[in-house]
């Protein structure tokens, strides 16, 4: 009897401790955090242009439980949460989706985990809040009717160069502007918000709006506070200029813009920046090559171009120029010389083609470097220069001057000779007379 009673007590005690920290039902006990290490996913971004934004979170599960992940804004209001999530002890998740309400502009959000009270419905008043949480500031973009067609561009717009970005934000109706934000994350457009400037066009008059403060939130986000609020009417606009650098690849990049970004009524929109390939232009090919083997070519090249100019004849490469890689911030006009092989003379029809230094080694490599193209057509110029021809110019004038001086010298010599002959004749006469 005593042994039976003791066995029952031991079994009850073992059953109570068999799953320490896990209470009856779907929730974890208060002695064990069901979730730890909660944080936002490293690539989490609410800006998915044209799609409903989604926040992603990561965590480690310490116990089997049913939990909810909820988002709150800086005022503590809930702006989104998951449905019931079943966690498994010892597992780790990175990328759990958390739907979020329709938000605009900059929002600082905190994610928190709650253990379900058993009804599988999120109720922050009844569900147990866990200590683990994380906070991050996000930029929510949209297409706000308060703004017109926001436009953006870069000067120069060619790849991998120092540039100035200009974002034009028009008002489609009455709009008060006290701050603007530019989000260039995930675009490759590197902006320097610290050097931002803002101009406002109000009733057709363009004026500089002093910048009171610039802060950066995350990589590639610039928040620009003006010295005061400015009232814009329909057709008025703001222009934000920011120095930066373009990406190394060509293509379109979409950045986000917000007016009064911290306000619940922030007006947001997106704009596209086109990064172009730096393509040179052949202006002309000389119609004569006075010195055999040297052909002059005039060109225009934007910053970012790395070009060789190659002379070809019937598909055979005859020669090429040195590398042209302008550092001028906008564009370079210049001339370059192509060395041609010996044996060319007279009128010679050839084509000059611009090649990109594709492999970036600074040497012309016909097997690696690719010809430039614009709108699907080669950047090339066909010409028929006269190789080895003499042209009129400074050289001819010098030759003429030399001939004149030579003729003058001959004349002087002839005159001196005549004088000498005359002197001899006089001397002979005198001698004859004296004899």
TrEMBL record:
It comes from the Archaea. The chain crosses the membrane at residues 403-428. The keyword Membrane applies. Residues 318-384 form the DUF7282 domain. Keywords: Membrane, Transmembrane, Transmembrane helix. This is DUF7282 domain-containing protein.
């Amino acid at each position: 009897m005593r042994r039976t009673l003791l066995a029952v007590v031991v079994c009850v005690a073992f059953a109570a401790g068999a799953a320490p920290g896990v209470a009856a039902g779907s929730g974890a006990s208060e002695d064990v955090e069901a979730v730890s290490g909660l944080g936002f996913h490293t690539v989490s971004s609410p800006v998915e242009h044209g799609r409903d934004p989604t926040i992603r979170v990561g965590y480690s599960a310490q116990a089997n439980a049913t939990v909810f992940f909820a988002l709150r804004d800086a005022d503590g209001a809930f702006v989104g949460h998951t449905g019931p999530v079943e966690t498994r002890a010892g597992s780790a998740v990175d990328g759990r989706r958390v739907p979020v309400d329709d938000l605009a502009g900059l929002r600082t959000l905190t994610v928190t985990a709650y253990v379900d009270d058993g009804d599988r419905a999120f109720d922050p008043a009844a569900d147990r809040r866990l200590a683990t949480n994380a906070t991050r500031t996000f930029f929510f973009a949209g297409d706000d009717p308060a703004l017109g067609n926001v436009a953006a561009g870069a000067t120069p717009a060619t790849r991998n160069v120092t540039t100035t970005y200009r974002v034009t934000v028009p008002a489609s109706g009455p709009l008060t502007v006290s701050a603007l934000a530019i989000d260039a994350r995930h675009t490759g457009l590197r902006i320097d918000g610290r050097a931002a400037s803002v101009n406002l066009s109000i009733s057709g008059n363009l004026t500089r709006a002093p910048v009171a403060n610039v802060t950066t939130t995350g990589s590639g986000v610039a928040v620009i506070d003006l010295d005061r609020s400015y009232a814009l009417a329909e057709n008025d606009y703001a222009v934000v200029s920011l120095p930066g650098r373009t990406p190394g690849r060509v293509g379109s990049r979409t950045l986000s813009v917000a007016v009064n970004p911290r306000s619940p009524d922030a007006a947001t929109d997106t704009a596209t920046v086109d990064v172009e390939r730096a393509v040179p232009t052949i202006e002309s090919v000389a119609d004569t090559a006075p010195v055999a083997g040297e052909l002059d070519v005039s060109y225009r090249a934007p910053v970012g171009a790395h070009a060789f100019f190659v002379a070809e004849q019937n598909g055979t490469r005859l020669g090429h120029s040195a590398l042209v890689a302008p550092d001028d911030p906008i564009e370079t006009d210049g001339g370059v010389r192509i060395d041609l092989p010996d044996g060319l003379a007279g009128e010679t029809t050839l084509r000059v083609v611009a090649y990109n230094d594709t492999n970036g080694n600074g040497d012309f490599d016909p097997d690696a470097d690719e010809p430039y193209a614009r709108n699907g057509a080669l950047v090339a110029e066909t010409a028929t220069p006269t190789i080895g021809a003499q042209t009129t110019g400074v050289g001819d004038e010098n030759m003429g001057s030399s001939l004149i001086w030579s003729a003058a010298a001959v004349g002087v010599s002839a005159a001196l000779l005549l004088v000498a002959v005359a002197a001899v004749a006089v001397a002979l006469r005198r001698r004859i007379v004296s004899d």
